Structure formats: C-alpha cells, structure tokens
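Field: COMPLEX_INPUT
Field: COMPONENT_COUNT = five
Field: RESIDUE_TOTAL = 430
Field: MODE = joint
Values follow.
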Amino acid sequence: MQISRVVRDLVTTKRVFWLASKSLRVVEDPAGNLDVVVDPIGTKPGDYVITIGYSAARAAAGNPNITTDLTIGGIIDDWSEERWRD
Amino acid sequence: MQISRVVRDLVTTKRVFWLASKSLRVVEDPAGNLDVVVDPIGTKPGDYVITIGYSAARAAAGNPNITTDLTIGGIIDDWSEERWRD
Amino acid sequence: MQISRVVRDLVTTKRVFWLASKSLRVVEDPAGNLDVVVDPIGTKPGDYVITIGYSAARAAAGNPNITTDLTIGGIIDDWSEERWRD
Amino acid sequence: MQISRVVRDLVTTKRVFWLASKSLRVVEDPAGNLDVVVDPIGTKPGDYVITIGYSAARAAAGNPNITTDLTIGGIIDDWSEERWRD
Amino acid sequence: MQISRVVRDLVTTKRVFWLASKSLRVVEDPAGNLDVVVDPIGTKPGDYVITIGYSAARAAAGNPNITTDLTIGGIIDDWSEERWRD
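Field: COMPLEX_OUTPUT
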C-alpha cells in the first residue's frame, strides 16, 4: 500500500454506474502525484492515509463490484511531513 | 484512479474481438504521457476525466469480457489546467 | 492501453507451457522501453499497435489460460512518429 | 517480487475491515520509496525481505479476503547494503 | 512481459507457505533494477529471460496458488548486451 495525504473532494457529473454513489477524494503521494481514490471510511483534507491499489481496491471499497483501482484503507495516526517526504 | 485529459479518438483497423465495438480515446496524463482508454460514457476532446485501471477497467467498461486495462470512469466538473499540472 | 511500435519477433527455446505456441513480439513504447507481447492478430515490424496489460492481456490473447501480461489489442491506422513521440 | 528493508511498524486508527487485525510495516525499496505492507511472518526493523504485490499479495497474507496489495513473502538471509543498492 | 537477465539465486529462511518450495532468482532489468522471480524452467546466471508479471505470474509458476507476482516465462535464444541496453 502507499502512503498519501488527502487533498480535497472530487466532484464528477457523469460517472460509470458502480462509482455513482461513492465518495471520491484527490490524494497526493510523497512525490506530489495526484490520484483519485474511493474513501469508504471518511477522511478529511490533510489526513495521512494508506491507499490500497489494484484488484484489492474493489474489496476494500466494501463491494467487489465497485470499479475502483485505488481505495483508502486506513488513517495513519502518527505520520509527519518530515517522515512523509523522506 | 488517475486524472487525465481527453486528446482525440483512436482509429484502429484490426482489433481483438472484445474491443471491436468499443469507443477508444487517447488521453494524456499530467506528465504528458498518452494512454488509450475505453470510453463508456461519451467524452469529448478537452474533457478532464478519471481513468480506472487494471482489472476494474473491464467492469467499468460495462462488461467484464471487454479486454481493456484502462477505462474512463467519470468526467470531472471543476478541474483546471493549473490544478492539473500541480 | 499503451501505444507501442513493433520492433521484431522474439525467439525463445524453453518456455512455460501456455506460451509455447504463441507468437511473441518485441515492442517499443514511446519512452524507448522494450516489452515482450503476445500477438494474436498478426503484426509486422514498424506497425503502431495498442497493447493491453495486466489480467486483461490473457483474455485478449484468446484464452485466459495464456500466461501473458501484455498482448497486442489492435493496429493503429493513422499514427505517426511525430505524434508518438509527443 | 521486490527486495525491501523493513523500517518500522505502522499504527492506524480507522481501517477497512479486512486489514483491521493485520500487522502492518513500513518498508523501504532500494530507491528509498516507502511502502506499507502486511507482514504475515513476523519481521523486525532492518530485515531485508521480499515483497509480493498485486493480487498475489492477498493470498500471501494468508486469506484472499485481506485487502492488501503488498505483502511480505520471506526474509532474505544473505543480503547486504552494498548489494541492495546496486 | 519484460526482458531481464538472471543474476543469482536467492536464499530465504522464513517464507510464506506457497513460496516455500519454489526456486527463486534475482533478475536485473535493462535499467539495472533487481527483481525476485519464481523460476519454473531452470535458468542459470547470465541467461536472458522473459518475465511474466501480475496475476499471470501465478499460473506461469505452474500452480495458481503460488503467491508470486513475477515468474520466468522463457529463455531468450538470441539476445545480446547491446540490444538489451538499447
């Protein structure tokens, strides 16, 4: 899994069926790349999270039919900017 | 999922069976790399979209038999060039 | 899917069972990286093709038992060196 | 599989269900990137390990329902800093 | 699939169950990155091989229960250092 930081919500109009009702967030990885994730646990901007990718992302979203390739798996308690950028 | 921008349609002559009837688009990611995606929702050049990769791409295309590894999952309402390139 | 250019055939002696009878090609991606792909449609050196990766590559090869992670999905009609290197 | 070095444990508060009871570690790859892994065998900081990614990570964690995309697969006996950084 | 060169065997003490009896090799890709692979066909250091990744790696290892994400798929007959580094 990757360590990322939640940046903001993402609003989309047209979506494929199985993403329609999901909470989407924009997260930033340590290299500054932006990804879009499904958030099944409720995070807020600034939270450090672990993201689960590939086929495991669907089950992590709570339903294997959810067509995501990246899902938030947990909120990290004790992470810091310094450690993150190491 | 990744954030990309639709560049153009892609025309192919010979295709494997399960891609034969699909709309293919060329999209550009923030780093300027080009990818080919299945578009199940109908996008136009310039749209900012989220792309779904790996095994989830097949279900997102509307049929798990569709042999794609990248599919458009939604159109982003409020994205901007500045934010995209950040 | 990725856009690549067919470079040459690949000859191997020992192979795992499910690749034994497949046509293998070396393809080059826009960054100049070489990959080995299964070619189910019949391409020739110089053709611009789309390649399908991950689990979809097996079905694209015509049989999900074929142990490939990258398969040619189609030949692009109207691609050019300039556009490819963009 | 990748060769990585165990850095530390990872503590998370909220987690998705199938990660709730797992031991998570932060590992560092040869390029210095940090990843979060499930540790089913019991490693300690400084151990050189092999990590198993993608869908195989779930089975390697001991239960295919465990929503991980990276799992420790073994401890390497005879690795060294010099060799690792090659 | 990727083209890599076999570097050496890998010895591990503790391993997850489904890797316990497999031959593991360290391979080097053209960029010099090291990977660990399951070798189902019997290779020796210096051999140029194709490696199969992701979910196909399990079937290529001879048993879908084998928890590998990278497996040697064949030995290349006519590869050369020059061509490899191109």
